[in-house]
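May I ask for an example protein's residues together with how it folds?

___
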Amino acid sequence: MSADDATTELLTLSRRLLESIAEGDWTTYAELCDSTLSAFEPEARGQLVEGMDFHRYYFELQGSSTPRQTTITAPKVRMLGPHAAVVTYVRLDQWVDRDGTPATSVFEETRIWHRRQGRWYHVHFHRSSNR
């Protein structure tokens, strides 16, 4: 697989991952992530979380949330050899709040992907909020 092909595939997978989050699609999210996924994110309050249970909780809460749109800006892919990559971008989440006012959240994200057995798995991420 060429570096250009891997870059395209990783950006597609990253977009698919974010769509699964916005849509509350746990099945797709779990399919894309390694079961030992680790993360630093605002919801973890500075703690490293490992495994999928922490994330599943938030998917289960999403049941009645309003539709969201996610936009990736300034994406970069850095290959760390044929089996590992870092994907960075700024994520814009848009939705309509309870008062009917459009709202946007901004996050800087770094996602680590590991290729094994012919496919990429999301293994770690760091998400910072700039609300």
The radius of gyration is 15 Å.
